[in-house]
Specification:
Strand 3 (65-71) and strand 4 form a beta hairpin. The chain is an alpha+beta fold. Helix content is 27%, strand content 20%. The protein starts with 6 loop residues before the first helix and ends in a 7-residue tail after the last helix. Strands 3, 4, 5, 6, 7, 8 and 9 form a 7-stranded antiparallel β-sheet that branches. A two-stranded parallel sheet has the order 1-2. It is globular and about 45 Å long. It has one domain (7-188). The longest helix has 13 residues, at 46-58.
Length: 195
């Protein structure tokens, strides 16, 4: 992990992990594994990858941050690990999809960074589903949920639900959002790993 000293190197490492479909090696339950368990298992879903990425960045003097991207009830939420380089925001992301990935540190603030995911987040019928994004959550506030925990870190997931969130668009405009085009829907179905 000492060699993973830049966000892009950390992202390359996250990309090398298989995607955790939560049914591997006899696990048939939802998981929120600590970084050490993710490393042992060799796979991660978005929250586990974001926590591992934030932890690795913290070894190189970045604050360990997470940002929750909340979707409508019809879709799944996403979690990324935002970071700052030269005063600009970027994000690490572990996903199985071809689009909800790493963001270069080119965004002036957290809202700009969060908005970069908005148009790529939609259902198979083209309906855009991102509704809110959170303020960054600093993992240093969790004294009892360290990277070496030998279990699930559900307290972090619960805190992500509780912290301040901001709307992507005014609620009255949601029904007016244009659906994704057929070609965008086709591109959105590209996945790295099959279940």
């Amino acid at each position: 992990m000492k060699r993973l000293n830049t966000p892009s190197k950390v992202q390359d490492f996250l990309n090398s992990l298989k995607f955790n479909f939560e049914n591997e090696k006899g696990i048939k339950r939802e998981t929120c594994r600590s970084p050490v368990l993710v490393l042992r298992g060799g796979s991660a879903h978005c929250l586990e990858g974001a926590m591992l990425g934030a932890y690795i960045l913290s070894l190189h003097n970045f604050p360990p941050l997470l940002m929750h991207l909340e979707a409508s009830r019809d879709d799944y939420d996403h979690v990324v690990a935002p970071f700052k380089v030269g005063g600009l925001w970027g994000a690490l992301s572990k996903t199985n999809h071809g689009v909800l990935r790493y963001r270069e540190p080119i965004y002036r603030n957290i809202r700009e960074l969060a908005m970069s995911y908005f148009h790529e987040y939609f259902l198979d019928n083209g309906v855009k589903t991102l509704r809110r994004y959170s303020a960054p959550l600093n993992l240093n506030i969790f004294e009892d949920s360290g990277p070496n925990e030998d279990g699930d870190l559900w307290g972090i997931d619960e805190e992500l639900d509780k912290i301040k969130h901001y709307d992507f668009v005014p609620k009255k405009y949601i029904k007016k959002l244009r659906k994704a085009d057929k070609i965008e829907i086709k591109a959105g179905k590209v996945v790295e790993y099959k279940k």
